Amino acid sequence: MDALGFSSGPLEPERYRDALADPSAGGYASFEGWVRDHNEGRTVQRLEYEAFEALAIKEGERIVAEAVARFGVTRAACVHRVGELGIGELAVWVGVSAVHRGEAFAACRYIIDEVKHRLPIWKKEHYTDGDSGWVNCERCAAAGEAHSLAPVHDYSRQTALPEVGAAGQAKLAAASVLVVGAGGLGVPVLQYLAAAGIGRIGIVDGDVVEASNLHRQPLYGVADLGRPKVEVAAERLRALNHDVRIEPHAMHATAENIDALVAHHDLVIECTDNFRAKFLVSDAVVRAMKPAVFASVHQYEGQVQVYRPLPHWPCLRCLWPEAPRDGMVGNCAEAGVLGPVPATLGALQAMQALKRLLGLDAGEPPSLVMVDLLSLETRRLAAQRHPACDHENPGAAAAPQVVPLELEYTTLAAALESGLELVDIRETWERAHDPPGLQIPTHLPLSALVNGYLEFPAEGRYLVICAHGVRSLSLTEHLRAHGQAEVYSLRGGLAALRS
Amino acid sequence: MIDIEVQYFAVLRERAGASREQVQTGATTAAELYDQLAARHDFGLPRAMLRVAVNEEFTEWSRPLAAGDRVVFIPPVAGG
What we know:
heterodimer, A: alpha/beta, Aldehyde Oxidoreductase, domain 3, Rossmann fold, 18 helices, B: alpha+beta, Ubiquitin-like (UB roll), 2 helices, 24% helix
């Protein structure tokens, strides 16, 4: 049967129950919601349910999938009635079969609670006095919570800390955090912040889950391959903690969107894997005067830096006045990394963020903390504002160029017709699996260009191409900065062409 | 000649083949020391892209060196 269905006729729990039977299941739990004859002191005669079915089915299927994943049950389903119902009729049915009863009850409870909270279903009550009124079920659920079970999330192990307490927990619940990048650093950041009960978490990431991510981003699984990271992350984090509002933004941070995103949050955590985004975020938090936590990893090492909008605190540009170009130093794809390295640095970022939100970092001077996971050494290097770094006008020296750096094409044929010579700068091993129709004859691997084994041709008009458009953009910027006017980067790289 | 303790990170560690070394040098500033070591280990990264810290504090490349100083060369890192 469908995970979530609507029925305009009477529900048939016996039939649904049989559909959940499975030889491996040791039990079945079900919930039935009935039409009762009163609500908020008024006598109800009959009801009408109306649903925005297309949306409700999609969201309902998501809820059931969450319950199956979260509680490890065998099968689960929900059927909701629409149309006119009389007193005593079955309005909603939830059923779960599982190996053990504990998961079955828990999943059943989860599904009905989430259905009532999240599905766009409206209820019209007809009262005995002839009056009637529409009631959104979200409000029914909110009213019902007063007599529901104790809250699922219990923060007592953190509020027990004298420095946190109930007041600290209230600060976290009132806080909003923007996490830019939901990869190796972002995953532990998101998990620990959601678990800690941060009130609202925005997630920015334009990537989909790839098989090569899984070893260091265990929030995602094999079944999530190809799905937008923010969508999967939002699903998992909502299941982790109902108290937290998760706001997914399926896009990369850009000069156009970053200020609006930063403006809507109290603190920003930068978890991307490229300098462009890191400097973009740094400039934005300096402009908005918001605190931020930066981190980066390289193989077995990492760096963490907190920015605070105080006069003597350095931003990222204060530390690195010569904005480094992507591809000059390795990222995870090129240099390799063990999962616990970004996990450790991400956990440090989450800790720094909690300290900032709780006010536990008063004695901490501005610094860059370096962590070496091979030697298990950490080193704090005191850092200062760079006198030449203009915090009134951050990133002014790196103002965007008038000629676009990137060009957009949807097919390789269209790119070929542009009159530009196509240059593939991916590494040789990356080209090995290309389908024959997608082979770009001119191949100048970025590593060879960076190391000076190959020279980028000085004359001509070129479209530089890599896998996702990050390295090609860096190289394009670099070439433009060195006087080469007619070089462009293929936006989104080969991935954009294929899709 | 003075004794300096040098520590490397990330790309520099890979190129140097060690995370730290004790060097005897005639270099008088952090910049001179980097240039000597860059030539020896073929670092291939321009000094302008790096930061130097002496005795746990970020500092200018022109900073004079003293015997026993702990020098760290730090390349920017972007992975995540």
